[in-house]
Amino acid sequence: MRFGKIDYLNLAPFDIFIKSYPTTSGFKKFLYLHKSYPARLNQDFLFRRIDAGFISSIAGYYAHQKKLATKSGIIAKGDVWSVILLPNPSKKDYQSATSNALCEVLKLKGEVLIGDRALLHRYQEKEHIDMGKIWFQKHQLPFVFGRLCFNKHKKFYEKISLEFNQKKIKIPYYLLQQYETKSQIDKKYILRYLKNIYYKIGKKELLGLQRFYRELLFKQIQKPMRFHSLTKSSNIHSQHHDKNASK
Predict the structure, then answer these.
(1) What is the DSSP string of the chain?
(2) Residue 34 pLDDT grade (very low, low, confident, very high; cuts 50, 70, 90)
(3) Among positive and negative, which fits the CA dihedral 114, 119, 121, 127?
(4) In sequence order, which residues have a C-beta less than 8 Å from that of residue 145 and are 6 or more positions away?
(5) Which of 24, 78, 132, 155 is 20 to 30 A distant from 204 in Cα terms?
(6) How confident is the model over 62-107, as pLDDT tens digits?
């Protein structure tokens, strides 16, 4: 079972939960070796290099349609602190397809910044716009930034989701110190940040997710797809073949 891990502070509670969850040593070894940023995990999931993970909502659309998504996600109801827009020329963040799309949906202009880098920017009290806050002001609904999706082992991952949603996680002091050293963000600030995020997807969260998907359709914003990548690869191969044939 190959689980891909987002290496951000927003999943610290899940990391603590999964460490103590009864899984095979192979599962945990893969988990800690295979960690990256959301957009990279999107591709790994779509190309089935991983079986499951917290996938960006925009890339989890097809899992949502096929009922291959659990009731666990990365959610904020208002300010999120780690998905922001900087007052710079418009620029997408290579690490997150969902946040880039959210910026378009909200008709905002600026430089998208996500994850621990965004949190550090806010911690340093630099100018920014919180996109979670803008979404909530406009729709009065939570925003689901990512969702625990799977390609197989349905019962296993649904059980993990159920137990995680029911669990109250306390982050050990030694881990907070590690997070502080790694992120350069004060541990008390990290705890305040994590209060903005929750993980259980209920009716309102699903409604917010569906509203986001409807906006993507309305604005014709493309979702990450395995097909698109294969088509691009095929076109490059075809162009190369045509050049050789014309020589």
Answers:
(1) --EEEE-SGGGHHHHHHHHHS---HHHHHHHHHSEE-HHHHHHHHHTTSSSEEEEETTTTHHHHHTT-EEEEEEEESS--SSEEEESSS-B--TT-HHHHHHHHHTT--SEEEEHHHHHHHHHTT---EEHHHHHHHHHSS-EEEEEEEESS-HHHHHHHHHHHHHPPP---HHHHHHHHHHHTS-HHHHHHHHTTEEEE--HHHHHHHHHHHHHHHHTTPPPP-HHHHHHHHHHHHHHHHHHHHH-
(2) confident
(3) positive
(4) 56, 57, 73, 74, 75, 76, 80, 83, 98, 99
(5) 155
(6) 999 999 999 999 999 999 999 999 999 999 999 999 999 999 999 9
**Has residue 236 got a pLDDT over 60?**
no
Tokens 């541990």 found at: 187
Q: What domains does the chain contain, in order, with CATH numbers?
A: 3-221 (3.40.190.10)
List pLDDT tens digits, range 157-202. Answer: 999 999 999 999 999 999 999 999 999 999 999 999 999 999 999 9
- Cα 83 to Cα 107, 119, 145: the distances in Å are 15, 8, 9
Six-digit token string for 149:
């999706």
Rounded Cα distance between 141 and 132, Å, is 10
**Token duo for residue 166:** 């029911």
CB 171 within 8 A of CB 16: yes
Would you state the torsion angle of the CA atoms of residues 228, 109, 58, 5, taken in this order, to the nearest 10 degrees?
Answer: 100
What's the token pair of residue 57? 């909502």
Neighbours of 226 (CB within 10 A): 14
